[in-house]
Amino acid sequence: METLPTKVVGKRLKTPALTTPAESLWRASRLIDEMNRLHPWPRPRGFVFKARTYADYERWRRAQENPRLW
Prior knowledge:
Elements: H1 21-38, H2 54-63
């Protein structure tokens, strides 16, 4: 059976060194903190919005200025 040549695009990145779970958690928390500083909207508290129909929900969703609410 004849094999086809493989197309190579770019260079493969070196695999990062394995990290401990504690270090991964620390890195993730730093990224989340940075995202929260850069994002103009405050993080909303948890809530439940009940709409009678999908049309009511869509109307409510489009009226919201904060994209984090949906």
